[in-house]
Amino acid sequence: FSAAIVITEQPISVSVPVGYSFALRCRAEACTSLQYQWFCQHQSVCCQIPGATEQDLLITAQQTQLYTCRINDIYKNAVFSNWVKVEVHQCIGRGLLPQLWRGEPVIILNPIEQKVEVGKPLQLQCAAMGVPAPSFQWYRNGNVLEHQKKKKLWINHAKVSDSGTYLCCASNSHGEHWTNAVDIHVGEPSQPTSGFNTLIPAEHLQFCCLVFLLATDKIALLVGNNHYQHHPNLMAPVTDVFELSLLLKQLGFQVVSLLD
């Protein structure tokens, strides 16, 4: 005779900084005694976690992985919990969290202002930490964008009507937090101008990174301008300098960081 195993508490996905310690929880009920075994998956490789046979799995976050728990009874019946994602932000330290962090959303990446040509793709991105992992909702001009519920907002072919002020709300059971609002202008192609009046294309950023990696003296100068005389203040440059500084130091560079 065997009875059903009922999972009464599923583990939850989280989004945390590297080094953060927490527990994944799983609870189940049955008419017999139960045994627990946790598994993890990283880069499509799934493996059993040695010694992880308790209801709670204690974790110190090191890398992004998926986890599930198997519960079996004395009759060899078994069920698996939901797969959950532990998203680990490698370049974010615990020092950026509020002192008494309860798991409420913390924005770590804000979208940036853009000028997009008609017909070209429009992509906005944000990121937030939280326990549970936050859900996302994008807005344009204060109106909900029904189908934009991910960290990345993607519009394949931008139209003039897609212009406006965008922002995203990250929320979980502990509360909500909003990104900065950014203005997006979608228009016809314009003639190129001198100077640095347009956003730096991704391939140029990749080239800059390659130049850093090939530098023989291994010295990097990072300049992040956060305040402009004729432009709204930005948040991204400070974060970019911080993250690039950590990365370059790991690659053996001497780093000089200048802000404003």
Low-pLDDT segments: 193-200, 206-215
What's the helix count?
2
**In angstroms, what is the radius of gyration?**
23 Å
Helix-strand pattern: EEEEEEEEEEEEEEEEEEEEHEHE
Q: What is the typical, i.e. mean, pLDDT?
A: 85
Estimated structural class = mainly beta
Distance, first to last CA: 72 Å
The CATH architecture of the largest domain would be Sandwich
How much helix, percentage-wise, in residues? 10-25%
Tell me, what's the shape?
A: globular
CATH T-level topology of the largest domain? Immunoglobulin-like
- Fourth-level CATH superfamily of the largest domain: Immunoglobulins
- Biggest sheet, open or closed, and with what strands and sense? 6 strands, mixed
Protein name: MALT1 protein
Pfam family, one: Peptidase_C14
GO molecular function, one term: cysteine-type endopeptidase activity
Keywords: Disulfide bond, Immunoglobulin domain
Explain what you see.
With 260 residues, the protein is mainly beta. It has 3 domains: 6-89, Immunoglobulins (Immunoglobulin-like, Sandwich); 106-187, Immunoglobulin-like (Sandwich), CATH 2.60.40; 219-259, no CATH class. Helix content is 11%, strand content 42%. It is globular.
List the helices and strands and how they pair.
Layout: E1 6-9, E2 14-17, E3 21-25, E4 27-29, E5 34-42, E6 45-48, E7 56-60, E8 65-73, E9 78-80, E10 84-89, E11 106-109, E12 114-117, E13 122-125, E14 127-129, E15 135-140, E16 143-144, E17 152-155, E18 164-172, E19 175-178, E20 182-187, H1 202-214, E21 219-224, H2 236-250, E22 254-259
Parallel strand pairs: 2-10, 12-20, 21-22
Antiparallel strand pairs: 1-4, 3-7, 5-6, 5-8, 8-9, 8-10, 11-14, 13-17, 15-16, 15-18, 18-19, 18-20
